[in-house]
Amino acid sequence: MQGRTNRRIIQGQLQRTLRNHPTDAERRLWQHLRGRQLDGCKFRRQHPFGDYILDFVCLERKAVVEVDGSQHSDRIAHDAERTRFLHDRGFVILRFWNNEVFENIEGVLEVIMAMLVTREEAPSPPNPPLEGEG
Fold first, then answer.
1. CA dist 131 → 3, 4, 84, 87 (Å)
2. Is residue 107 part of a domain?
């Protein structure tokens, strides 16, 4: 799959459910990402991409921000596969633990901002060819 969204995700409306029921950490971070507050970048929340739903993504800079709770300590292999999938499609992924968002929101925002600035200055890698091309 070259980044097409899985029909199961779209038809099941999973992203809408997640968007309507964010975790406290996601809600807090969203208050700082929404409305182009960071370097004028538009972030989307709970955005479907491939077989995954991304917590926050800026498509123009190919930047993904994930907020992980304790359940992710049991999903290391799954998260690594997801990171590899997104990286292969030109995305940079930042992961923060819930407690980082609550205890150091300014530090989290600084890291995100630094990544956005870097992504603006560096040309993004070319998209992989569509199926049947290349």
1. 11, 11, 19, 18
2. yes
